[in-house]
Specification:
Elements (H helix, E strand, L loop, with lengths): L3 H11 L2 H13 L7 E6 L5 H9 L3 E7 L2 H10 L4 E3 L12 E6 L9 H13 L1 E11 L1 H4 L5 H6 L11 H10 L3 E9 L7 H10 L10 H10 L13 E8 L5
Parallel strand pairs: 1-2, 1-4, 2-3, 4-5
Antiparallel strand pairs: 5-7, 6-7
Helix pairs in contact: 1-4, 2-3, 5-8, 9-10
Length: 249
């Protein structure tokens, strides 16, 4: 996994910036009832999406949480007093605290299935009856857009997707959460070019190919033969799923 304290300063610029944040926030809000209450944006990162959630819904009291101090500091600059350090597997909140909980680009980072289950369980625990949990799913698959880059990378080793939709849905069901909607949004500015993909390979962004792995260099050499080295291929489209916690009776 990347060191998100080190990534914090350049994170927004390397992940689509404000355009992607706006698309993400709009899609998330489309799955959350527009009424007063409390929202937890878990793994809020730099707060670039969290700030938009708060601005778009003034009646919502928005809290951001992240376990990386570097990320949390940047988020706190955007939303003073609304950001806390927290581990997604053991949230520092009482049961039934929030009317909505969001995890955007979190579950795909958790390699251990038991920890994914624990995170979903914690999100369900702190959710009030009638509340909604919204999460991204199938993130890695979103980046395969059928381009020539994807054709080169098709044989690469892959680890099982911890955020596979069917698995997340099953974890949610175990914790009493029912499917409540879905959406997609564009990862604006995140389309891959051959040159940027080579750089990503060499810095370890493809988690089953660590830096220095000879196989990574083999893929890099093949990518270097593609035309239009700096032309970005189509943007990915990320999937969201919503789950509702039933009310008593």
């Amino acid at each position: 996994m990347l060191d998100y304290d080190e990534e914090a300063e350049a994170y927004d610029a390397s992940r689509g910036g404000e355009a992607r944040a706006e698309a993400a926030a709009d899609a998330v809000l489309g799955l959350i009832p527009d009424r007063p209450g409390r929202l937890l944006d878990l793994a809020c990162g730099t707060g670039i999406v969290t700030r938009r959630l708060a601005a778009a819904r003034p009646a919502l009291q928005v809290t951001g949480a992240d376990r990386a101090p570097g990320m949390a500091r940047r988020a706190a600059a955007r939303l003073p007093g609304a950001i806390t350090l927290a581990d997604s597997r053991r949230l520092p909140f009482p049961d039934a605290t929030f009317d909505a909980v969001t995890t955007v680009w979190l579950l795909h980072l958790i390699a251990d299935t038991a920890e994914v289950r624990a995170t979903v369980a914690e999100c369900a625990r702190v959710l009030r009856p009638g509340g909604v949990y919204v999460t991204t799913v199938d993130k890695a698959a979103a980046h395969d857009v059928g381009s020539d880059i994807d054709a080169v990378l098709a044989p690469r080793p892959r680890r099982p997707a911890p955020d596979a939709c069917e698995h997340v849905t099953a974890h949610a069901a175990v914790n009493g959460l029912l499917p409540a909607g879905q959406s997609v949004f564009a990862g604006l500015g995140q389309g891959r070019s051959p040159r940027s993909t080579i750089a990503d390979l060499r810095r370890g962004w493809f988690t089953a190919l660590r830096p220095g792995d000879p196989r990574a260099e083999e893929f890099a050499e093949r990518l270097a033969t593609l035309p239009d080295q700096d032309r970005r291929r189509p943007d990915p489209h990320f999937a969201l799923r919503a789950f509702r916690k039933p009310t008593a009776g």
